[in-house]
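Protocol step 4 of 6: structure prediction from sequence.
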Amino acid sequence: MLESEQDSDTGGRAPSADPARSGPATPASKTEDAAFPSPNDESLVEELGALIDDARLYAEAELAFQKTRARLVGRNVGVALGAVVLAIILLHIALIALAVGLVLALEPLVTIWGAIGIVVGVMLLGVGALGWLAMARGRGIGAMFAADPDPSSASAPTSGDTE
């Protein structure tokens, strides 16, 4: 008889031996979830910590990659620059040889001084043409970076300039 009275008081369940549960009855699933979180549920702090660690790892890897790439580019730029300097030197020597050859070839037709004058004159004309081309291109580049490329738009019409 005593058991039936206890069953009716606790809603048909036997009283719990746990003193923390002596209060109002709560569903078993809620108390188990709070006391024992599932292993798949990570807290927000743990997720942010993992995200920060991943971002740090990515940044370190990216920095190492960029350092390696810069080192390779620097080495290749050095080799390319050396090749360009050597090519310019060889071109200079070839032009000197061409000039000497032209002087020697023209010497029987016109005197040695005439041959030298012709070769030097043609070379100076070439230098002048290349200098003029460089100046024209330089002016074009300067015009691209000018503050106001169209001088006619600099003066806005005033109230007295109506047509």
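Step 5 (inspection) to follow. Confidence is low (pLDDT under 50) at residues 1-8.
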